[in-house]
Amino acid sequence: MDFSQQISQYVISGLTIGAIYALVALGYNIVHNATGIVNFVQGEFVTLGGMMMYTYYTIFKIPLLFSFFLSVATVTFIGALIERGPIRVAKSKAIIILVFITIGLSSTIRGTALLIWGPDNMPIPSFSGEKVIRVMGAAILPQHLWIFAITIGVVIFLQYFFHRTLVGKAMRATAFNRRAASLVGINVNHMILLSFAMSGGLGAIGGIIIAPITTTSYDTGIMLSLKGFSAAILGGYGNSTGAILGGLILGVLESLGAGLISSKFKNALAFFILLLVLFFKPTGLLGHGEADRV
Amino acid sequence: MFSIIKKRETFLLVIFALAIILIPLVVKNKYYIIVMNVVGLNTIVVVGLNLLIGFAGQISLGHAAFYGLGAYLSAILTTTYGFPPWPTIVLAMIVTGMVAYFVGYPSLKLKGHYLVMATLGFSIIVNIFMGELDQITGGPSGFPGIPHLSIGRLVFDNDFKNFYLIWTFAFFCILASLNLVNSRVGRALKAIDGSEIAANTLGVDTDRYKVKVFVLSAMFASLAGSLYAHYIVFISPRNFDFYYSIQVVTMVIVGGMGSVWGAFFGASLLTVLSEILHVTEKFNIIANGVILTLVLIFLPEGVAVGLFSLYQRRKISSLIVPPQKN
Fold first, then answer.
1. CA distance B33 to chain A (A)
2. pLDDT digits (tens), chain B, 326 positions
């Protein structure tokens, strides 16, 4: 394998994992825009997506397509439950308290997942076989194509949803100015509920489509979600185009760094980038104004 | 020194000091002493973190890293390079404080909760380095053979001696925190937590205070880390992972954000609880999560304060005749 082949191989696997980061980053953004909180349960949505898929598809032998939608629906429902339950019931609505509640919930869910599914890595078969496709010398698995296709599909759907539908526009209005939104008759509480549900669905999709490549376990979500978070910051927190861009850039940099320099510190790279962005350009690549210095 | 501490607190401090002196004389069970030593170490970290969360209103998810920096700096410098232990503890605190300054300064200048992300990212990086720089740190299998601390002939080589050592430091950390809280700086910090902009217009340099208290809390954690390393004489990256950061934050919240004694209470309660649940690590994750979530939902002021105010409210409401419903 010559050098250019190697590079294209790294870029392909970087884009694959980057797509997952992008989905996670989008999930963070949606909740952040609706509520102003960092939702640490995001990582558990990813885990649960993979685990549900494992349960429905591998254990119950439900056909692939149904398993997929069933898993996404289940995690979407869990996302909604989190808003309806703990977040809604909380006595204090201070941001710092709500963020900590999501941290607590994330441990709770991770611990529950450990009890239900155990500590082992669960394999999920690829959606359509393992036959390697060669493009420019790089080996691509069909699963890679699935990841790209599904991510692109999700992004197009979100774009349509937020810009062409009434509910999507109402969500954007809520993100822009909650008070003004409620004054024009938007039920802000419903929008917040919807944001949690959607971030649950997005996380689940990420967890499901990556599982055939990386396998899934009760704690896969932690690293994926923390890196997705870095991707969100890199792109500009709250900005959806930024989230996608941030995710892909982070994925590719990580893959190139691991392949060409050293794989030892692969996991640290995302967080170096996070710190660099926070220190030198806290608005991220595409963000604007949100991180004002007072 | 005690002048700015209220009378009630002086009383509590005296009781606390007496308890520290008496406990090892009464409790002969080694296991209980070990648990209490862990409580003491956690108390030092939590008292510092409480200043940051409770008074400056900022979240850190990186205190495991500062705790770990203290431990690893002490371990490596004394064991590998033969530095004298006591000055190394101070050196580790200074280095950790400087690192905290570089992490905290840029993110605390930003509005919003950027510190939580910066500290989170930073602590993951530190943890990865602890595991990967195996030539220096011993890697994932840990760093053994750290010397015990000693003063002259007195070597702190058993749990009872370490009890006095650790709790003496814990005592002085609590004392220092109480002093700080009741001082001009403490009032400035409370003002920041109340309203940063208001504090700013009243002439409080909010950025500087926030960075200072963050650095101070990191130094407390470093001190606890060094003591841990010299007490257990073995450290590994697992002691300083993300999970520990969440655990100390939980202790602050359970104890009641902004209460120094609450920090001690939270550290004791959760350390003992996690010790009870230690049978299997499985339940530890769940238990911590459930406790954190429930306390935050129903008693956001902390367990002690929250239960007390619930009780008060019930007493008051029983005195008021309920309004007639039509």
1. 29
2. 445 556 778 888 899 999 988 988 888 888 999 999 999 999 999 999 999 988 777 888 899 999 999 999 999 999 999 999 999 999 999 999 999 999 998 888 876 667 888 898 899 999 999 999 988 998 888 999 999 999 988 889 888 899 999 999 999 999 999 888 888 877 887 777 777 778 778 777 777 888 999 999 999 999 999 999 999 999 999 889 888 998 898 899 888 888 888 899 999 988 888 888 766 666 777 887 888 888 888 888 787 777 777 777 776 666 665 555 55
**Which residues in B lie closer than 8 A to residue A226 (C-beta atoms)?**
120-121, 124
Task: Kindly list the residues from chain A whose CB atom is less than 8 angstroms away from the CB atom of residue B249.
Answer: 100, 103
Give the Cα separation of A232 and A28 in Å (integer): 7
Q: How many independent structural domains does chain B possess? A: 1
Quote the CA–CA distance of A4 and A43 in Å, as a whole number: 34
Q: Which CATH number does the domain housing residue B176 bear? A: 1.10.3470
User: Is B325 inside any structural domain?
Assistant: no
Q: How many residues does chain B have?
A: 326
Residues 6 or more apart whose Cβ sits within 8 Å of residue A149: none
Q: In terms of C-beta distances under 8 Å and separation of at least 24 residues, what long-range contacts does A101-104 make, across chains too?
A: A101/B292, A101/B293, A101/B296, A101/B297, A102/A37, A102/A38, A102/A39, A102/A40, A102/A41, A103/A40, A103/B61, A103/B246, A103/B249, A103/B292, A104/B250, A104/B288, A104/B289, A104/B290, A104/B291, A104/B292, A104/B293, A104/B294, A104/B296
Q: What's the sign of the alpha-carbon dihedral B158, B161, B164, B170?
A: negative
The domains located in chain A, with CATH, are: 3-280 (1.10.3470)
A262 interfaces chain B, CB cutoff of 8 Å: no
Note the ipTM here.
0.84
Assess A94–B contact: CB distance below 8 Å, yes or no.
yes
Q: Which of A229-238, A285-294, B143-152 is least confident?
A: A285-294
Q: Which domain holds residue B269?
A: 7-319
Q: Which residues contact B185 (CB under 8 A, 6 or more apart)?
A: B209, B212
User: Is some CB atom of chain A closer than 8 A to the CB atom of B310?
Assistant: no
- Does residue B16 sit within a domain? yes
Rg value, chain A, Cα? 19
The terminus-to-terminus CA distance of chain B in angstroms comes to: 60
B127 in a domain, yes or no?
A: yes
